[in-house]
Amino acid sequence: MELGDSAVMESSNSKVFELRVKRSEPTLVGLAEETEKGPYYLSNLDQNIAVIVRTIYCFKSEDKGNEEAGEVIRNALEKVLVHFYPLAGRLGISSEGKLIVNCNGEGAVFVEAEADCVMEEIGDLTKPDPGTLGNLVYDVPGATNILEMPLFVAQVTKFKCGGFVLGLCLNHCMVDGIGAMEFVNSWGETARGVPLTVPPFLDRSILKSRTPPRIDYLHREFYEIKDISSTNKLYEEKIHYQSFCFEPEMLEKLKTKAKENGALEKCTTFEALSAFVWRARTKALRMLPKQETKLLFAVDGRPKFVPPLPKGYFGNGIVLTNSICEAGELVAKPLCFAVRQVQDAIKLVNDSYMRSAIDYFEVTRERPSLASTLLITTWSRLSFHTTDFGWGEAVLSGPVALPEKEVILFLSHGKDRKSINVLLGMPASAMKIFQQLMHI
């Protein structure tokens, strides 16, 4: 075994905890049966988000140890990859200069590891902590760009308490949150020997651009905002990561505040929380009144396409929508103003808008700009906790780190999953202000 990286984490009682992990040699997991070979098409919605997403799933059974965890999960991966065979391929570039998958059956990377502690010693798993949690996922050494990285990497880390953590590295160009959830849950079903509840629909050509392409909207999600507030300079400070838990009562309070004096007829939890966090972050970063600020978030396009995407669509079925306004207006006006911006952004998304976004990329090859932007990613509606490989449902699941400094993540929290954890990283001085603004 080789010694993996160790990580040091400061706990609340100021003791320093060091997570040490011993990894075995990585192996390649091929396909249990022969599958199609050759190029596999990725849609324009897949092209925009070729970033590696790292997540962990924690499992603990009262009456079942972790001795067989690695073997069971590895064997199930071999079988489930037959259904999701593009994940066993490698990324390439097509003649059009776009990302494409070469389905060569090279395989997913699999690593077994052992931690020198019990799972509880890791601390707060609801807060992204790349230093510590990074030991629970395997980054393939020597890969210098996205084309050199395998599409899928799994690590099973056994703890002394009998629990284990499954750490995954998955390229976002292959799948969005819904697709990832369906894949991991299918993997769990395979491990338990039950049929797949949602078999994957693999043909992404149904999202090809139109001929000729037709751009019917402005698509301000791609718009680059000038940073007149020197926010980028602020980010040279040490970044502090924090999670803020919004319990059901607080979320109701936010919705009530947004609707006070009859300003709004209705308001969802997502709309109220997104608006509240956008305003607070804008204040905390001390943006100048004339600074434009952009809110970006993904909308699930599966039911909004005409016809809707088939059940089990394997790929990215999400589209980014946006709202842009001046920072001064956003923070000076009541919460209902920000909520309206969010609502208008949601209303934008229909079949016509999504087809236009697909065509926009076809013509321009631009990617959404994150300058002076807040990008909200919502995992609170995804049931990753239902994943079960035979040790019961995951007791905890979540991200290892946030992909970009502009990203804020919403995660469901608590036994009934009615609370929402808001995870973000900010410059130290801005985080102090943001913490104060979180008191509703």
UniProtKB/TrEMBL annotation:
<dbReference type="Pfam" id="PF02458">
    <property type="entry name" value="Transferase"/>
</dbReference>
<keyword id="KW-0012">Acyltransferase</keyword>
<dbReference type="GO" id="GO:0016747">
    <property type="term" value="F:acyltransferase activity, transferring groups other than amino-acyl groups"/>
</dbReference>
<dbReference type="InterPro" id="IPR050317">
    <property type="entry name" value="Plant_Fungal_Acyltransferase"/>
</dbReference>
<comment type="similarity">
    <text>Belongs to the plant acyltransferase family.</text>
</comment>
<keyword id="KW-0808">Transferase</keyword>
<dbReference type="InterPro" id="IPR023213">
    <property type="entry name" value="CAT-like_dom_sf"/>
</dbReference>
<protein>
    <recommendedName>
        <fullName>Omega-hydroxypalmitate O-feruloyl transferase</fullName>
    </recommendedName>
</protein>
